[in-house]
Specification:
It is a single chain. This protein is α+β, with helices and mostly antiparallel strands and 627 residues long. The protein contains 15 helices and 29 strands. The strands form 8 sheets. Strands 12, 13, 14, 16 and 17 form a 5-stranded antiparallel sheet that branches. A 4-stranded antiparallel sheet has the order 6-3-10-9, with no helix packed on it. Strand 16 and strand 17 form a beta hairpin. The chain starts with a helix and ends with a helix. Keywords: Calcium, Metal-binding.
Length: 627
C-alpha cells in the first residue's frame, strides 16, 4: 500500500464515523487495525480489510472534502537557501514570502548573498494535502521587488510532535531548506512496514579539506603554482550531488592567513541531500585563481549512504581520489527506519558490527621541524600512498590526510619520510628516514599506530572503519525486494487476466511477461508459453516460476532460446523434428494450420535435414514475426 493511499484511508476513517444502521456495524479507526499488525503480511491483510470497509469513498468528492478539512498547526522554519540566481549585478538581497490560511508571512531581507541563512520560524495553520507556494524575492530599493524563483511544499499528514526537514527545488535556480514541527494535529503517529527504497535525508556538514597540494599540481593549469603568493589567492568550493538531489555548491572560500596555503581550506558549511541507502554522494573539490571566472575540478570523492539510524551523527574523514581528505559531519534527519515498526530497527551496536572499508589517516609527525616541506609515503607491497608536502614552521608537522587502505590485518608496510623541493614539486624529494609497521586489527574504534624512525622522529597513523550497511538492513532489504517483486508480478498477472479466472492464455501471457521483463522480445515470450503452460494456460504460481527462470538467465536471449530449444528436444539428441516442432507450436498460436507451421519449419531447415539445429532454431526465433 502506498503512503499516499495510507494517508487517504487514515484520514477518511478518522473523520468519518460510518454507521450501518441496517447491520448495526461501525467502521473503527485504521490505527486500531495497525496496532494489531506485527508483520508485513499481517499489515497487508489488515490494510486491505480497512480499504474494503471504505469501499469507493476514496474516489468520491465526499472523501476529498473530509481530507481538505484536516487542519494542523505547524511551526514552519525557513532555514536557508542555496545557490540562488543572481538578480542585480552579481548580487541579490533575498527574502521569502508565502501565504497560509489567507495570511501573508515574510522573512527578513538578507543583503548581498546568494546563500542566505534566515532561521526564521512562523506559526501557521494549514490543511493536509495543500501546496504551500514559497516565493524567493529580491529586495530592490526604490522600485518593485523582483521574484527570484518559486518553490512548493505539499503539506504532509503529521502527528503532534513530529519534525520534518525538506529540500525544495527553486524553479529558477537553487534550493530552499525548511523545517516543520507539528504542534497540534488530529492524526495519530503511524507506523509503516520497512521499505528499503525509502528516502534518507542527511545534513552533510563539510568542515575542511586537508592535504590537497598534490592534486593542485597534477590537475590545474595554474601558473606559478609553487609560489605562496599564488596559493594564497586561490579560491575553493565543493559540489555535492546524489541520484535524488541535484548538484549543490558551497560558498567559495580561501585559505585564511596563518593556515597552509594550497593544503588546507576551512568551509564549515552544511548541505542537505536526499538518497536511498547504498546511494552514492558524489563530491567534487574545485579551485580557481583570482582572475579566473570558472572553477575547475581538481579532485573527487564519494560516500556510500549506510542505513543511518534516526538522528545518528557521524564525523569522519573521506579520502579524495588524488590526494587529500575531506572532513565531514553527517547528521541523519530522516532515516530508512523513521516511523517503521520498532521490531525491525537495529540497535546502535548492530549497525557497526559489520566491517566496512578501512581508512588510514596520517595525523602528525615529530622530529621534522627543520625541514621546509616534509611528506610521507606508505608502501603496502605494490600499493604506494603519498601525502602532499606540508610547508610549515615548528613542531609537530600536521598532515591530517586520509587514504583508503585496501589491506588486510597484519599486512606489512614501509614508511618513508622525504623533504620536497618546492621549486620543483613534481620531482621526488630527498629521503630523510624509513620505518616499518603492520596493519593492526580494526574494530569499532580507531586504532593508532606510532612509527618510530629514531629517538626523536616519529609518525602517527590512525586506522578506522567507514560505516557500511548493517547485517540487519541487508536481510531486510533482501526480504523486501522479494516482497516488492512478488507484489509487482501479482499486479501484472491480475491486470492481464482479462476474464479474471486466475489463468493467462497465450496472448495474455505474452503481454504480461513483457511487462515484467521489457527486454524480452515478442517471439521469445510466445515461445516460452508452451514450456510452462498446463492445459494451454498459466496460473499465478507458474507465472512467478517463469519470472524466476528468466532472472536465473540474467535475461540473456541466447540462454532463454537454449532453454526453449532443450524443452522441444525431448530426446536430447541436439535436433528438433518437424513433428516435435508442430506439437510445440500449436500452443503458441503463431500459425493457423499445420501447413503454415511446416512452411515455417522448412524455411529455416537450411541443410534440408528435416530437423532444426540450435543455430537454425535460434535464427527462427530472431526472424519470426508475431502479430
Amino acid at each position: 500500500m502506498s503512503e499516499e493511499r495510507y494517508d487517504e484511508i487514515q484520514l477518511a476513517l478518522q473523520h468519518i464515523e460510518v454507521n450501518w444502521n441496517e447491520m448495526g456495524q461501525r467502521i473503527q479507526s485504521f490505527n486500531s487495525y495497525i496496532e494489531q499488525a506485527n508483520t508485513t503480511k499481517e499489515f497487508k491483510k489488515i490494510a486491505g480489510e480497512a480499504s474494503d470497509l471504505i469501499g469507493d469513498l476514496d474516489e468520491s468528492e465526499k472523501l476529498r472534502t473530509f481530507i481538505s478539512m484536516t487542519k494542523i498547526d505547524i511551526e514552519l522554519t525557513i532555514l536557508e537557501a542555496k545557490n540562488l540566481a543572481v538578480s542585480d549585478l552579481k548580487r541579490s538581497d533575498p527574502y521569502v514570502v508565502f501565504m497560509a490560511n489567507k495570511e501573508k508571512y515574510k522573512t527578513k531581507v538578507i543583503e548581498n548573498v546568494l546563500d542566505p541563512v534566515w532561521n526564521e520560524s512562523f506559526q501557521i495553520k494549514v490543511e493536509v494535502g495543500d501546496k504551500l507556494m514559497l516565493q524567493i524575492m529580491d529586495k530592490d530599493v526604490g522600485k518593485k521587488d523582483d521574484e527570484n524563483g518559486v518553490c512548493y511544499w505539499k503539506i504532509p499528514s503529521m502527528y503532534s510532535g513530529q519534525i520534518i526537514y525538506d529540500i525544495l527545488d527553486i524553479d529558477k535556480k537553487g534550493f530552499l531548506y525548511i523545517k516543520a514541527v507539528c504542534n497540534n494535529s488530529p492524526l495519530q503517529k503511524r507506523l509503516m512496514p520497512f521499505d528499503y527504497e525509502k528516502i534518507t535525508l542527511l545534513e552533510v556538514c563539510i568542515i575542511s579539506v586537508n592535504g590537497f597540494y598534490n592534486s593542485l599540481i597534477s590537475n590545474t593549469c595554474i601558473k606559478d603554482i609553487t609560489k605562496p603568493k599564488v596559493l594564497k589567492h586561490l579560491k575553493y568550493t565543493m559540489e555535492l550531488t546524489t541520484s535524488k538531489t541535484k548538484c549543490q555548491r558551497l560558498i567559495k572560500k580561501k585559505t585564511v592567513e596563518g593556515q597552509q596555503y594550497g593544503n588546507y581550506v576551512f568551509f564549515d558549511q552544511r548541505i542537505f541531500v536526499k538518497g536511498t541507502v547504498n546511494d552514492e554522494i558524489k563530491i567534487s573539490f574545485l579551485a580557481k585563481e583570482k582572475h579566473q571566472k570558472k572553477f575547475k575540478v581538481i579532485t573527487n570523492s564519494s560516500f556510500i549512504i549506510p542505513d543511518f539510524l534516526p538522528n545518528e551523527i557521524m564525523t569522519l574523514p573521506i579520502p579524495l581520489s588524488e590526494s587529500g581528505s575531506l572532513q565531514l559531519k553527517i547528521t541523519c534527519l530522516e532515516s530508512v527506519y523513521t516511523n517503521v515498526y520498532p521490531t525491525v530497527i537495529p540497535t546502535a551496536d548492530m549497525v557497526i558490527e559489520k566491517k566496512g572499508n578501512v581508512v588510514m589517516k596520517l595525523t602528525k609527525s615529530n622530529g621534522f621541524g627543520d625541514f621546509l616541506a616534509p611528506y610521507a609515503t606508505v608502501q603496502f607491497g605494490p600499493l604506494l600512498i603519498t601525502t602532499s608536502p606540508i610547508q610549515h614552521s615548528g613542531e609537530p608537522v600536521i598532515f591530517n590526510e586520509s587514504f583508503l587502505a585496501l589491506v588486510e590485518t597484519g599486512t606489512k608496510a614501509i614508511v618513508r619520510m622525504y623533504n620536497k623541493d618546492m621549486k620543483n614539486p613534481s620531482k621526488e624529494g630527498k629521503k630523510l628516514c624509513e620505518g616499518k609497521f603492520e596493519v593492526p586489527e580494526i574494530k569499532n574504534k580507531p586504532v593508532k599506530v606510532v612509527v618510530r624512525f629514531n629517538s626523536i622522529s616519529q609518525l602517527e597513523i590512525e586506522f578506522f572503519l567507514i560505516r557500511t550497511t548493517s547485517s540487519v538492513f541487508d536481510e531486510l532489504e533482501k526480504t523486501n525486494r522479494i516482497e516488492k517483486r512478488n507484489q509487482k508480478i501479482e499486479s501484472i498477472f491480475n491486470r492481464f487476466d482479462e476474464d479474471k479466472d486466475g489463468y493467462l492464455k497465450v496472448r495474455e501471457f505474452r503481454t504480461a511477461i513483457q511487462f515484467v521483463n521489457s527486454t524480452l522480445t515478442r517471439s521469445l515470450s510466445v515461445f516460452l508459453f508452451p514450456c510452462f503452460a498446463v492445459n494451454n494456460q498459466i496460473n499465478l504460481t507458474i507465472f512467478k516460476e517463469v519470472t524466476e527462470v528468466l532472472a536465473s538467465f540474467n535475461n540473456s536471449h541466447e540462454a532463454i532460446t537454449k532453454y526453449i530449444y532443450n524443452f522441444i528436444d525431448q530426446n536430447k539428441i541436439g535436433s528438433i523434428t518437424l513433428t516435435q516442432f508442430i506439437n510445440f507450436a500449436h500452443q503458441t498460436q503463431i500459425a493457423d494450420s499445420d501447413k503454415e507451421l511446416t512452411n515455417l519449419f522448412n524455411s529455416f531447415d537450411y541443410d534440408k535435414s528435416k530437423t532444426l539445429s540450435y543455430k537454425e532454431f535460434y535464427r527462427m526465433i530472431q526472424c519470426v514475426v508475431i502479430d
